[in-house]
Write a structure and sequence with these properties.
This protein is an alpha+beta fold. Helices cover 20% and strands 32% of the residues. 17% of the residues are buried.
Length: 181
């Protein structure tokens, strides 16, 4: 029985040796960074800039390529947590505050695949806002590639920066800081 089985296995092995499938679609060129996190510091909203600050992704993070399907999250630094701990508080934008004494102030943003703007919105007279609402603001921009997001299992509360940081393993020591232009 084994004398007949060995030649048969040998013939089968030779037949399968010549099989080859498609190479597949080409992938993304190496060296391209698809996602990133960076801070914008010392951002001022003034009448001169019409309470808007605009940036290109290339100017802030030259190697990043943002696709239409990518997730761009922008957080505003809100200070230390309410209990006075040395923990930074970040709030997802758009962020509305009513404690200006002048009405509702909204920190908002929009974006394309090449640039983004952060602006003030709401029913307040921006020129009457205290400087603490318009001067030296800090924003954290988190870009999450759609393909990376789809590969990660589980869900994350994007309104909670710490949850996003933990879920996507953001190393805060490596976050680049760009002062306002």
């Amino acid at each position: 029985m084994t004398k007949k089985l060995i030649p048969l296995l040998f013939v089968i092995a030779i037949l399968f040796q010549g099989c080859k499938g498609d190479d597949g679609a080409p992938g993304i060129d190496g060296g391209t960074v698809l996602g990133t996190t960076f801070d914008l510091t010392k951002v001022n909203f003034t009448p001169a800039n019409k309470y808007v600050t605009s940036y290109t992704f290339a100017a802030t993070s030259p190697n990043v390529k943002v696709l239409e399907s990518d997730l761009v999250l922008i957080y505003i630094y809100w200070g230390e947590d309410v209990l006075g701990n040395a923990l930074d508080t970040w709030r997802l934008m758009p962020q509305t505050t009513y404690d200006t004494g002048l009405g509702a102030l909204i920190y908002n943003f929009d974006r394309t695949t090449t640039d983004f703007s952060i602006f003030l919105d709401g029913n307040v007279d921006y020129s009457k806002l205290p400087a603490s609402y318009t001067q030296n603001q800090t924003f954290r921009v988190v870009i999450i590639p759609s393909d990376f997001s789809s590969r990660k299992s589980g869900t994350v509360d994007y309104s909670d920066y710490n949850a996003v940081k933990n879920f996507y393993n953001i190393d805060e020591s490596k976050i680049a800081k760009y002062p306002a232009k």
